[in-house]
C-alpha cells in the first residue's frame, strides 16, 4: 500500500476501531503474548485486504469478518495452544460491573470459562451477541444465514446453561 492517503486512512480506521480487534483477540487468546501476536496478524490481514474493501458493508462488519477469520485460522494452525486453561490461569478481560459482589465476579469467571469451551464459530456468535449485534449483522460477519444465527444462538444458550447450571447452583 504505497498510497500515503490510503495508508493514513487505514491507520485512522485501526486507531478508531482497535477495541473491536482487542475483543476478538481476548476471546481467542488467554496469553498476553498470544493476544499481541494475534492483534498483529489481524492488522496485517486488514492491511492486505483494505485496498479491495468496497464499502458495501459497514467497516465494523468487514473488520469483524477479517478479525474472526484470522483468529480462527490462527487457532487452527497453532496446535501448541491449549484448548482450555484452568480457571486460575485465565486472564479474563472483564469490565467492571455495577454489581461487584464476590458471587457476581465468580459467576462471570465461570461464564467465560464456559464460553472458552465453545467452538470457534460459537465463540464468535457469543461475542457478537454480547456486542448487541443484530442477527443480520451476525449473519453477514460469520457468513451464515440469519435463521442459522438464531438456531445456533439458541443451541449455544442451551449449551452454556447446561455447563453453568451445576456451577451456579453450587455458588448459591
From TrEMBL:
The keyword Transcription regulation applies. Pfam families: Sigma70_r2, Sigma70_r4_2. Keywords: Sigma factor, Transcription, Transcription regulation. GO terms for molecular function: DNA binding; sigma factor activity. InterPro entries: RNA_pol_sigma-70-like, RNA_pol_sigma-70_dom, RNA_pol_sigma70_r2, RNA_pol_sigma70_r4_t2, RNA_pol_sigma_r2, RNA_pol_sigma_r3/r4-like, WH-like_DNA-bd_sf. It comes from the Bacteria. Residues 13-78 form the RNA polymerase sigma-70 region domain. Residues 110-160 form the RNA polymerase sigma factor 70 region 4 type domain. This is RNA polymerase subunit sigma-70.
Amino acid at each position: 500500500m504505497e498510497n500515503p492517503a490510503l495508508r493514513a486512512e487505514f491507520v485512522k480506521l485501526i486507531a478508531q476501531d482497535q477495541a473491536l480487534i482487542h475483543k476478538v483477540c481476548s476471546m481467542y487468546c488467554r496469553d498476553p503474548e498470544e493476544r499481541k501476536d494475534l492483534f498483529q496478524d489481524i492488522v496485517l490481514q486488514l492491511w492486505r485486504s483494505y485496498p479491495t474493501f468496497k464499502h458495501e458493508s459497514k467497516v465494523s462488519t468487514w473488520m469483524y469478518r477479517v478479525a474472526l477469520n484470522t483468529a480462527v485460522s490462527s487457532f487452527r494452525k497453532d496446535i501448541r495452544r491449549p484448548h482450555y486453561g484452568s480457571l486460575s490461569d485465565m486472564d479474563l478481560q472483564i469490565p467492571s460491573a455495577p454489581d461487584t459482589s464476590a458471587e457476581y465476579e465468580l459467576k462471570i469467571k465461570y461464564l467465560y470459562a464456559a464460553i472458552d469451551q465453545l467452538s470457534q464459530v460459537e465463540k464468535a456468535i457469543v461475542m457478537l451477541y454480547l456486542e448487541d449485534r443484530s442477527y443480520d449483522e451476525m449473519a453477514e460477519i460469520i457468513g451464515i444465514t440469519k435463521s442459522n444465527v438464531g438456531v445456533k444462538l439458541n443451541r449455544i444458550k442451551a449449551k452454556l446453561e447446561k455447563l453453568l447450571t451445576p456451577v451456579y447452583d453450587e455458588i448459591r
